[in-house]
Q: What sequence folds into this?
């Protein structure tokens, strides 16, 4: 590349890209339940599914979405939303109260992640599968629809 060449800017990172980054983060740094990140001083601690999405979106340990800048908050919430829709379709978890009423119409990625029977591989697979589904629904021949 010549010094005067201007590289392309404005590359759009999609929710699918961020979900795959989150899955890769979990493969490299480990999976965690109960909180966004395992209690450690590491800059790259084991994370839950949503914590890994936060790392993918922000590039650093994001304890909660409201601590992110406004643009990153939107990206984070959209990406968590894509995972939630995927879980609703493929791994629904329903919470019914003692009177038989549905308490939560959407599968919470937090409670889904923290299910005692959940495994790291299930979380990683769900992130990757949600990314694949997003691509299938939103891209055409390698480009955005």
A:
């Amino acid at each position: 590349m010549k010094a005067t060449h201007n590289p392309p800017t404005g590359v759009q990172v999609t929710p699918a890209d961020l979900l795959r980054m989150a899955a890769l983060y979990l493969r490299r740094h480990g999976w965690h339940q109960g909180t966004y990140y395992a209690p450690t001083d590491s800059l790259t601690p084991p994370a839950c599914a949503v914590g890994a999405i936060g790392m993918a979106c922000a590039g650093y340990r994001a304890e909660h979405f409201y601590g992110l800048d406004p643009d990153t908050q939107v990206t984070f919430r959209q990406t968590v939303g894509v995972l939630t829709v995927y879980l609703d379709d493929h791994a629904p978890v329903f919470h019914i109260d003692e009177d038989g009423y549905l308490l939560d119409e959407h599968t919470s990625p937090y409670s889904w992640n923290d299910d005692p029977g959940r495994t790291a591989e299930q979380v990683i697979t769900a992130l990757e599968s949600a990314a694949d589904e997003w691509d299938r629904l939103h891209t055409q021949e390698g480009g955005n629809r």
Notes: The mean pLDDT is 86.
